[in-house]
Structure formats: structure tokens, C-alpha cells
Amino acid sequence: MTHLVNRPVPARAAWQLEQQGLHPLLARLYAARGITDKSELDYDLKALLPPAALTHADDAARLLADAIEAEARLLIIGDYDCDGATATALGMRALKALGADVDFLLPDRFKLGYGLSPEIVDLAAEHSPDLIITVDNGIASIEGVERARQHSIATLITDHHLPAATLPAADCIVNPNQPGCAFASKNIAGVGVMFYVLLALRAELRERGHFAERTEPNFASLLDLVALGTVADVVKLDHNNRILVSQGLKRMRAGHLQPGLAALFKAAGRDPAKATAMDLGFILGPRLNAAGRLADMRLGVECLLTDDPVRALQIAQQLDQLNRERREIEADMQEQALHLLEKLETSADDSAPGIALFDASWHEGVVGILAARIKDRLHRPVFAFAPGENGIVKGSGRSIPGLHLRDALDLLAKRAPGLLLRFGGHAMAAGATLRAEDFPRFAALFAEIAGELVDPAALTRTLDTDGALEGGYYALEIARLLENEIWGQGFPAPLFLDEFAVEQQRVLKEKHLKLRLRKDGARVEAIQFNFTRQPGPTARLAFRLAINEYMGVETPQLFVEYLE
What we know:
single chain, alpha/beta, 5-stranded parallel β-sheet, 5-stranded mixed β-sheet, about 20% strand
């Protein structure tokens, strides 16, 4: 069951925003999202939080500046998702522009797993680096940092994941979530943390006279990478993150983007001049992620690093094909998962507040997406596991508001010492590794802990909407107005709710519902992807106002998210 709720709109805030020059519709939408003054929508770079506010960013800058001056060998160790790939590419481009001797290494998710493990440090040691720089990982890598010390390699950790009680003994750690850090944007992505470290490094080198005989690089030219990683990692778009995303999109729309991003847009059949945050999260991000899920994320990083448009397009087309394969694998896995769920629904576990699923045929690179799909379907925290090597299973979890997934795993680890071989993550997404024979125990314990931590009311799906859309706003210019704003996790895109007369309906490709609707004499087209039911003569819909382009003609169209 889904409970539809209209977001309250503080009248005074909406009035003030409108008086400050905002469009009346935007004033209403922003007031409902907690905005009280137009200054909170200032996305100029000067409004960014200063790098000095990020604990140890200055220490990291000095460490890196010393390394560059000493002509030390630097090695970036990234992650195999979009945040990690963009952070790696960002570090490579920026550090090379500063004159550093730098290379990168990415773990194979199927062999080495996530983070700065002892195994990847041993592999890194073959490159003889003087300093390892982690991006989007490392905060939990106590053993990896110790292995680096044994190899006489210094370590700089840049990460944004939640730390455990004990931090690794790295030479420097930059993470807004480490104890004692007062940086206001706790939700910054890994690529954002690296961007801040690079800003601090450039300032340090400027003070040392590094640019007396060389051009000082403009790191704003790399904000397209920061925007992509930020949106794709589904971090909360607080004001600081919205600035980073807005500035990145601004550059994309102006045609100032990396050749690899331009190629990804082209491979997907999209125009970067019309780039939106949704394009980053649902078009570019999945294509980059497909490399890490099914193949080798080095391919994705190479796409972001090459300055050859022809090579960039070749790689982008490979990534597009990998993404198609990923969707096919995911569809098969989802069908199998639904069969498993049918068995659950006939058992006493049909109302379990936390669900863990496993199938020996599942692909470990796709279990995160599968967990997200099942979570959306059941509105329950879900873990999906696939077999790894040497008798272990690797799981990826997705949560609902009301359950902090990493905290739940931490509690599970305390109750059952040794059950989890490795775990980590965020409030809404986390990963876990365990022995195959321990999966039934994990599933039972996860359901038990979820039942303790989740308020029963949170297990009813609530869809927050922005109420009805005024009749005159079903127009192309309003759809463009909304698309050009910055929406995302924690700052959701407008979702309207209203009742329509259904004049016509048909099913496209046996899975998409196409509608012609009428409201107060006006007609509008609508589509619901992967629909589950057809409406009667009238329908109450939760929808987004979007633009449909067909044969070069643009028209407003409703994207239906929920049909009652």
C-alpha cells in the first residue's frame, strides 16, 4: 500500500521567495523543500564552503605539495563505481596539471573487492609509489594502511564513507565524517572530497611560488566530473552539493566538458546542451557504472581521461553496450528474485521488516541494482547476495527511510562476531561479505534487527507530492523551467498529484502504459514505464512534468510514478 502525502508549503516562505523574484511555481516548490530565502539558491562558486573548513585538507595539501616538489611517485587508488571513477579521473587530471608524477590503480571487484585492501597494496607496491592516495575509499582500511607502511609507502586517505570506531593509521585522512570534523556538508561525495583537497593543494602551491613560471590550472574546468560523481553516488544534495552540480551542468550545457562525457552523451543519444541532473543519474552514471559491474572500471576511467574524441566515442560505445548487457542480466535476476519473493509471500516471512535474498546464479556486479528494485517494490530494506570466490557470498543492500543500513550491519556484527567478514557503507546503501553457509543466519538476524530498528509506520510506503499542478502550467516552458533546476537525493524533483479523465490508453512494447488525459478541458499525454495496472475512466496520478521529443518536436508529457 502507498500513502500519498502533500508536502506542506509554508505560506510566508513561498510569499517571500516570490517577492524576491522567483517564479510562483518555483517559490511554492522551494518553500516546500525548506528554502526560506533566495540566497539559499545561490549556486555561484563563491558560495562554496571554504577548503580550510574541511579537517586536514590543509595537511593533505602540504603532504601533496611536498611530494610534488620532491618529484615523488604518486598512485591514486580508486573505487569501481561512478563516484570512484570520476574522483580518480579528477585526481589524475588535476595532479598532472600541477606537475605531479601520478598514476592510478583500481581494484578488480571480483578478485580484490572494495577499498585499500592488503592485496591491492601489494599490487600497488609493484609500481613503487612513494605515496598512495585513496579516493572514495580507505576510511575502513586499517590493514591496508598497515601493509602500505610495511612497504614504506605513505598514505593519504580521501573518503566520505562513515568511519568505524578505529581509524587507519594513515599519514593524513580527509573525510568530513571523521570525528572532530566540523565541515557542514557531511553528504559530500568522494569526488567532492578530492576536489576540495585539490583546491587546498593549489592554494598551498600558490603560496610556495609554484606558479611563478607555469600556468595555474583552473579547476573549475573539472566540475563536470564532480557533478557527475556527486549525482551518480546519490548523496544528499545539500546547498554545497547543489553548487557543485549546478556549476558542472552549467559547463556541460555550454559545451565545456571532458571529451569522455561528451562521448557518453552522444552514445546515449542525448544533447549535453540540455543536460540535467537526471541525465547524470540515469544516463551517464549507469553507463560508467556498467564497466565496474561487468568488466573493468579502468575502461570507464580511460573514457574520462582521454582527450581524443574518437577514442572517447569508441569507449563510450563499449560502455553503452555493457550497460545494455547489465540491463538484460538485471532483468533475469529480478525475475528470479520475484519468484523467491512469491515463496516468501506464502510463508510466515511475508511481512519481514528486512529481507535478504541469494541465488547461486546471480552476478555480483548487479546485486546492488537488484536490491534497489526489490526495495522499491516491497518498501523494505533489502540485501541481495551473489556467490564470490572461495565459498563466500557478497551482498549489496538498499534501505528505506527509517533504517540506517550501516548501523544495522554494525549491530549485527556485534551480536554475531565473525559472521560478517567485511561490511561498510552509508545510511541508505551498504555492502557485506560472509561465508556462503552463514547466509541463512545473516538473513534471520537482519530481519530481526530491522524489526527492532524500524518504526512499523515506516514500512508503509509514503509518496511525498507537491499537490496539484495549476492548469496553465501544463506547458513546455514550465517543463523546461523545472528541468533546468537542480533536483536530486534529499532535494527531490517536483512530483505532482491530481485526478484526470482518461480519454485513451494503450500498452507499448507490452510493458509501458501510454495515456491521453483530460483535466478542465485541457489534454495532455502521459506515460508510465513498467506499469502494473491500467486505469478506469478516471485516474489519480502522481507524476512529473517532463518533455517528450519525437521527430524533432517537443511537447509536454507527464511521467507517471504512481497510478491509483
